[in-house]
Design goal:
Chain lengths: 328, 333, 328, 333
């Protein structure tokens, strides 16, 4: 990937590194807290895939919308959902970004148009179609970014949603996080054709595939993709990536070898980006150190916030089954 | 397209639904309707005929065949500030969209801690009686009423066909409206006092000897049966549920307290159907009022067959309602 | 389409014409009987599309299986389900091929491996996958032919089924009857890309598109397709065709012009085939006359059979909700 | 992979299910299992671990994510002479396949006039209690029991986990087996008398004062509650439904005739759930036996929340069962 001049100022590079590290350190803490039984339920971490959410979401504007999966802590963080509210959610506290009702798989945030946190694989795709349709019908310039795994590309809703997006010319950015596995099923057992982006061609949808471990590459391609979508047409961006950790906390990882995992870890997106920026003289080791400290403080404060959180009263259990008030 | 607004003209149930949709599209710029063949075809039951010409293809939006995606798109559009009316041709096809309905529409408000709501209306045809066989005839509205987070309505009269949609669109929750296919050609007058109510059951006929609780297509049959029973000196009170979730317990129990005998008439299958829930609630709330066990008359537990005589035998009919009431009040000896 | 020498003997041509006419005359009678209220429910006729079922099903062997839609009288007839049993089914008689429980949309016949008669658009595709899987796992050489409309190609099950067929190398012949409309929705409003065959490419499935009004062409391409499938790989055959009549008996045909319909009628598959065979000197006007007579007799006898049929006893209503006996 | 066949060893519910699947694969060449991650991953709840190695990838078949297609493929394979066992990870995802289940699997035999049958088993995990929130926790087995044409089983014991599958595979009808996720780690011994029964409810504990009708994960809780009640002098009879469709009315009514008071404990939602059907049947068949209205203890009507305290409050628990029984027998006042 060529290095477009002027894009990566020191400020921007620090910010990119900061986002990558926020996800990494936040989730490392989550795993720790899971082991300490502070977090329960299913926990799916994004470690290894941080460059995707970072590279894509940083291109969005505040009026844009995001639909994500159950592996969405990273997306929520980059989008600007407060780390404290996310952590409190995983604690099941009332101060959580879904008042403790959602947990790790169901983060929501109205303020940043973060529409979940969907734990039905493929289930978010039609929602993104509808959000984009609403923007279009109301002549709002918004882009809806919809994240999903390559496993979701086998579901019928993927096909149905791409068809609608193309037919109706909807401003949806489909972001396929192709990490080569759906739980323990390798892509060769999931999909007849091993790359996802060309599937868009069957609908006449513009598409690209990019090295999802390389923030510089994702950043560049995602920028062009978002521009395309903002002009009013869908785009499918496939990011080739890898999850370094188990699928969830209940995964013996019988389906892949340690050496395969290690070979991918050699392309850790954080180290790749740091090295690149330092080689180009844009960042220094001190930058990395400072960003790490800032991130550590944020994570610590998030944990503190969650710890101090309160439990929703039991009598409020039936609340929110139906809407309580007129939404704006 | 004739303009049907005067209360005194005779209109069909179909026209009443169409007027309701037209009113929504006229009065709320956020409202639009989408579904298979709602536009150029005019609606598979001709409900939406003429609306494409009046409102254009953006707001009367033909969709490809993809129930899951277009229902999900309705949810997303509702989240995005629109007021979608999604039409699914018949309830059997809605099963293709059930994941979106139960796992998304019904949960999003709760899962998000109240941040998001889904002001979506889904209309669909339901019910047997047209010899459409086992993939087009079921009555699953009572089954849908099991799902927390949605509202389920079943307009059984021309008035409700005309006014329930507006009430549904006023809510911020997903509302499913089930229109029984046998009712579309039913004719009648709109009453002078439109009832935009999505909370109450209605007593459609008063009587002393027994109560029939019903809704939808069985309402007409039950009223006919009441007429026949009247001739035999049996006064049947007829409660039209109107809204299947949440149920209006008070109206039901009031009638139980008056007649002490109850028959539930439901075109859904018996086991685990809505009829069971009503019986159970009466058990819980009015046990000591009962002079006889609550009885149920439901669809036979078969995938509905094509042949006319078999299909008729599978569904509650006027004569079987009469017989069930007679048995309930001990009129047969 | 070139005319392969030796394929169309007089015998074969007579048979082809016979099959085309059986469908046409049988369905013309159905429409009449619908108007006379002998047949009820939904009735979808295949008039105009006869060359598709004929051209494809004539390539199959008796051990092969068929999955069809609600527009399946033609498929059942060509497959060898008795016209009398089909007609009796539409009368709702016990002697019908589904004992009166199915009606027009749900014809079934165990003897000819005719698995319906499916009235959920797209719903038959997964069944075909399973039938083919059963053949494959049991090392039977069968081909499963699955018919569906272009409208079904928008459903998620189309995508899911193609993926499974390709991944598992299943002997399925997907036959898309592209008649340009799904009820009243024109293909431009249904599908982002207006041809269906290339969608197979996204799964690496072999595919072809053919003029579905031309029996000679369908016959030729279907033969090759079936050979391909019999070697153990799926194939998608798109037949471009047109229905001359309304979608069902409740269709005001607001969505297309009379002149469009007329222009397609000019390519009536029966007249095309007759003219071609007569031009080539393979058939004579007398052949046509004789075949017409034979067909008329069969249709008449089918109606007689249906008329003489009996009504299933009411107490048998609950039968067949659960299986009554061990199946072979 | 340990071989667990002796009746006297302690095994888990998970191992019992695995043994059942293994037995099927060993003894019937037509049997195979397919579903997401049943092979290389070892099953999302580790039920199928080791089977891929033993039987190979044809018969322990990993599927892509496509619930509708692989369930439909199971139906087709059953039509084609195989005996497929299809695993759906959890019941919420089964909604994506509901069209195939209701419109095809459940109807094909009837629609074809008895020519075809669908000997298919679909297993899935169900239920809450693991903090998996609103898209992974519901108990829809009672809801499924509404559908004619299918059989619904809910093994609540190690024995049933071990033997019900074989009984299911002996049938020619689609059988849905619901395994409550909280049971997989439960340990116990297999009894000496395996019961391959798919027709009867079982009285798991006898008692005189009241009957609790339950199944699945609530069975254990109810038995615990019975123990506590015993200490307070209240004898609770516990009926385990085992099979939710068709229901074994006789066993239920026998118990009603003995105790005259009934509590139904069901982790499904209350309105229109299986609990309603049981109450309605008791109303119909044993009304005059009742000393008090039949009571129900069900899940709260909310999409299940993540937070532990909220989820616990939403489900029947030992203490709430105790309280409900005490109220039922009038022990509190
Ligand atoms: C409809 C549905 N089926 C199955 C599951 C269980 N499940 C959760 S994640 C997952 C794998 C999804 O893989 P992919 O889409 O590639 O996303 P990744 O986890 O790799 O990010 C599965 C099978 C689910 N949540 N939803
Ligand atoms: C899942 C589903 N949705 C909708 C329908 C109603 N419907 C019946 S036929 C049809 C059009 C199908 O078009 P196509 O697949 O092109 O087949 P054609 O009728 O043109 O042969 C529709 C929408 C249905 N039967 N099933
Ligand atoms: Mg993946
Ligand atoms: Mg078509």
């Amino acid at each position: 990937m060529s290095f477009p001049p002027g894009v990566w100022t020191r400020e921007r590079a620090r910010r990119g590194l900061w986002q990558l590290l926020r996800i990494r350190r936040f989730e490392e803490k989550c795993v720790e807290l899971y082991q300490a039984a502070k977090i329960r339920g299913f926990l799916h971490v994004y470690i290894g895939e941080e460059a995707v959410a970072t590279g894509v979401i940083e291109q969005l504007q505040s009026a844009d919308a995001i639909v994500a999966t159950y592996r969405e802590h990273g997306h929520a963080l980059v989008r600007g959902v407060s780390a404290g509210a996310i952590m409190a959610e995983m604690y099941g506290k009332q101060e959580g970004c879904a008042r403790g009702r959602g947990g790790s798989m169901h983060l929501f945030d109205r303020a940043t148009r973060f529409y979940g946190g969907n734990a039905i694989v493929g289930g978010g795709l039609p929602l993104a179609i509808g959000l984009a349709l609403a923007d279009k019908m109301q002549q709002r310039p918004g882009v809806t970014a919809c994240f999903f795994g390559e496993g979701a590309a086998a579901e019928g809703e993927f096909h149905e949603s791409l068809n609608l997006a193309a037919l109706w010319k909807l401003p949806v950015l489909f972001v396929c996080e192709n990490n080569l596995y759906a739980m323990g099923t390798a892509i060769r057992d999931e999909l007849a054709s091993q790359s996802v982006a060309p599937k868009a061609a069957a609908f006449g949808i513009a598409h690209a595939a990019v090295d999802g471990m390389d923030l510089v590459a994702v950043d560049e391609v995602a920028r062009r993709a978002v521009e395309h979508v903002r002009r009013g047409e869908p785009f499918l961006l496939e990011c080739r990536t890898y999850r370094f950790r188990a699928h969830s906390m209940f995964d013996a990882e019988l389906y892949r070898t340690k050496s395969e995992v290690e070979s991918w870890k050699a392309r850790d997106p954080i180290e790749l980006f740091t090295a690149r920026m330092q080689n180009e003289g844009i960042l220094t080791p001190v930058d990395r150190e400072e960003v790490e400290q800032k991130v550590a403080a944020e994570v610590e404060s998030a944990v503190g916030f969650a710890e101090r959180g309160t439990w929703e009263a039991l009598e409020d259990l039936p609340r929110f089954v139906y809407a309580e008030a007129e939404s704006p | 397209m004739s303009q049907v607004t005067s209360a005194k003209e005779t209109i069909t149930y179909r026209e009443a639904v169409r007027e309701a949709i037209r009113e929504a599209l006229r009065t709320d710029p956020r409202a639009f309707i989408m579904g298979e063949d709602v536009g150029h075809y005019g609606g598979c039951f001709a409900v939406t005929r003429g609306l494409l010409e009046e409102f254009g293809s953006e707001r009367v939006r033909d969709t490809p065949l993809c129930e899951s995606a277009f229902v999900g798109a309705g949810i997303g559009a509702a989240l995005g500030g629109m007021r979608p009316i999604v039409e699914i041709m018949t309830v059997n096809f809605s099963l293709l969209a059930l994941d979106q309905i139960m796992n998304s529409a019904a949960t999003l408000c709760h899962m998000s801690g109240g941040q998001f709501s889904v002001p979506l209306v889904i209309r669909m045809a339901t019910g047997g009686g047209k010899q459409l066989a086992a993939q087009h005839s079921h009555s699953l509205e009572g089954w849908y009423a099991h799902i927390p987070g949605i509202v389920v309505a079943a307009p059984g009269t021309i008035d409700d066909a005309r006014w329930m949609l507006a009430a549904a669109l006023e809510r911020l929750d997903p509302v499913l409206i089930f229109e029984n296919q046998t009712l579309y050609n039913q004719k009648g007058c709109l009453s002078d006092s439109p009832q935009r109510d999505l909370a109450h059951a209605a007593v459609r006929r008063t009587g002393r000897n027994a109560t029939a609780v019903t809704y939808g297509a069985s309402l007409g049959k039950t009223l006919e049966a009441a007429e026949l029973l009247q001739a035999a000196g049996i006064e049947l009170e007829v409660v039209d549920l109107r809204v299947l979730r949440p149920l209006d317990d008070a109206t039901i129990m009031q009638s139980v307290a008056k007649t002490h005998r109850v028959l539930i008439v439901d075109e859904g299958w018996r086991s685990g159907g809505l009829s069971a829930e009503i019986s159970a609630r009466i058990m819980e709330q009015a046990f000591y009022e009962l002079d006889a066990p609550v009885a149920r008359l439901c669809a036979a537990e078969v995938p509905l067959p094509y042949a006319k005589h078999l299909e008729e035998a599978a569904l509650p009919q006027v004569d079987s309602i009469v017989a069930a009431v007679r048995k309930l009040v001990g009129a047969d000896g």
